[in-house]
Every structure is written in C-alpha cells, then in structure tokens.
Amino acid sequence: MKHINFCLSFFLFSLFTLQISHAENQSDSSLNSSESIVYQLHVDRMVGTVMHDRIINAIELAEDKNAELLLITLNTPGGYTSTTRKICTAILNSEVPVCVFVYPPGSHAGSAGAYILYSSHIAAMAYTTNIGSAHPVSGDGKDIDSLMNEKVTNDAVAQIKSYAEKHGRNIEWAEKAVRESVNITDKEALELGVIEFTAETIDDLLDQLDSLEVETVAGIAILSMKKRKVVPIEMTIAEKILKLLSSPDFIMILMTIGIAGISIELYNPGAILPGVVGVLSLILILYSSQTLPYNVAGVALIVFAVALFIAEIKVVSHGILAIGGMVSFFLGGTMLFDSVDPTLQVSKSLLVAIVSVIGILMVIVMTVVIRDRKRRPAIGNEGMVGLTAEARSNEMVYINGALWKAESDETLHNGDKVIIIAVHKLLLKVKKI
Fold first, then answer.
1. Do 280 and 368 fall within a single domain?
2. Please, which residues have CB within 8 angstroms of residue 190's CB and are 6 or more apart in sequence?
3. pLDDT, tens digit (0-9, with 9 covering 90-100), for 57-115
4. Which value, to the nearest 10 degrees, does the dihedral of the CA atoms of residues 164, 169, 170, 172 take?
5. Residues spanned by the domain of 84
6. What is the pTM of this model?
C-alpha cells in the first residue's frame, strides 16, 4: 500500500508541476506593453471536461494579463449539456471580451457549439463553416421521449434565447435551431443576424474588430487591434494526456491494463508492480468517465469476463471459461460506450487485438498453472521423497544438513548412499542405491 500511495502521489505531483511550469512559461513571455494582447485558444472535438478546463483556464489567463481579447477558435459536433452550460456561464462572466470564431474553414459549431457561440461577446464564422442542429438528445444520440423531451427542449430554448437577447442576435433562428435542428452556413448566419462577422483568416477577423465596442461584466471596452500581438495558448502536457484519455480506444487499453494488473497481483500477492499499474489505470479511467457515455451493460459484461478469467486460473476448465471470458469481453467492449458517434466508440480492430492478446496470455498462464500442479512438491515430507541421503548408521541418515531416523529392508553402513522412498512423520523409509 505504501508503494501504491507513493507512486500515485508522485504521478499527480508531476502532472501538477508540469501544468504550473507551462503556465509560468506562458505568463512570463515578454509582452510589449504598447501592443494589444490577444490570447488565442483553439478547441475542437466534443464538448467535455477537457474543453471546459481549457476555456476556463484561458479566461483566467486573459483576465490576469489584462488582455484586449480572448479569441476562441471552435470546431465541435457538440457535447454534454451540463458542461456546455458551465462554459457559457464562464464566457458570459468574463471581464475580457471573448470572441468565438468557428474556424478553420470546413469546421462547424454543432449542437453545444451553437450555445457557446451565442454566449460569446463576439460571434464570427470562417468561410465554408456551418452552425446549428442544437436539439437536445440523449447520450446515445437518440431523441428523448415524450414529456422529458419537452421539458429538456424548453429549457434549452430558454437558455439560448437568453444568450441571443443579451447580445442582440437572432432569437427566432436560435429557437428553430433547438426545436427543429436547423443548420445554416456562415453566409446565412451573417444575413440572419446569428453572427456579427465572417472572415477568411484570424488576421482578417481581428482587422474587422478594430475599434469595436464590446460590453462585458467589467463595463464597455473598445477594442484596439491595429497594433496587436496574438499569443496562442498551447495545450499543456497534462491537458494533452487528459485529451488522450477521452479516446474510447485508449480507455479500452487502460481498462485492459488495469484488469490484468490487478488480476496478476491477486494471483501472485507481493508482485507490487502489476497492482500499482492496475490501480493507476483504473484511476485514469475514473477521470475519463466524466467525458464519455458509459453503458452499464458493457461494464457488466467486462466485469463478468474478468470473473471468468480468474475462475479459469483457479479451476482449470480446459479453456471453456477462458473462451467465455473472451467472448464476454469482446461484447462488453462493443457496448461499453453508448453512442452512435463513431469517434466515441471502440474500434473493432482494437478489440480483436486485445482479445487475441488476452487469449495468448491465458494459454500461457494455464500452461504454467497445469505444469505447476503436476510438479513434484519441493518442501515438506512429500518433497523429500526421491532425494538422496547418506547413511551414518543402520538407523540414521544425513540429508540437507540434518540427521534423520531411517529404516530399511537392508543393513545400512556408514557412508552408504540411499534414496528416500517414503516419509512417515519423522521416520524415513530408504533403500540403498
């Protein structure tokens, strides 16, 4: 337990240190006081814990450094309602103007992305981008049933309408985006008053923002973009690790490592390393569960598979339990993440590879276990049978540094080599070699 606590503490401390070090490096960068500082943060993929943390940290950095503007370039298919609301709340309460720019070309602000764009002080889209399809759905991408659907939809409509009223954007379209899942291009968004600007590049957008009057919780700000310095906010090592953890394939690998490590530790207590690796893997999985929709049936099948693997080690069933465990593990892996989005599903090729590796390991373990059971005992009375001893008298033999009482059908003389054929309590039955 001491080893596990130390390793966990060291791991978490390292991540924390890396995060602080990177933040200090960014904040200590030489910035010309005569220039307007624009912090630029790019966020993509689904709206989840990682995106939330990055945006919150970026707003705090921009406020701390009295930046002129925080520019968030966005490309997302959507995400979780609770996380989206937290992000929108942080943007609305930012003392620094926040511009959300759907960028680069070809990107989209789908579902939750529409709410984030509407909550920003300045809304912009690059050419060939689109926005909309903001109707709330369940975790598996399907419509919510009846009364609950109406309640959730009405809440979502009220949320995005309040953002539209705050920033003077098209309220009617915002409601249609939620109720009817309509979707429009950047050109249509500008014509309908959903956004204020369209631009081809970041510099093009910032040029258009010069002298723009923006109202924040801190008051009215007039942007000065003629002499500016754009400072990209790069992902820290800790954030890159956490982003990697949001991949279903990586979580599946972590789960396999965690299960294998803990199973090996239980089978061979005192090994320490497998147990530590297993616990670390499961802790990382617990963090990732905040960003991915878990399916209880998938988890249950994987747990059942682990039980079958352990049972195979304890009770050799000639592979029947192991095969059942591999089938259960494969089915559980396919059902583990309950989403119709391919990016939130475990790839079948990875599952096949993992099940194959587990099968090979099970064959090796079963072979070792069977061989160990057939092996002659090395300790105790049974372990002495077959060993060679030296007679010291007719009734005493010497073996392993000790004298033992012995009996034989033949007369023994000092120095005779004998083999032990049986043991009864403390009496050895021997015969001459």
1. yes
2. 125, 196, 197, 198
3. 999 999 999 999 999 999 999 888 889 999 999 999 999 999 999 999 999 999 999 99
4. 20
5. 32-236
6. 0.61
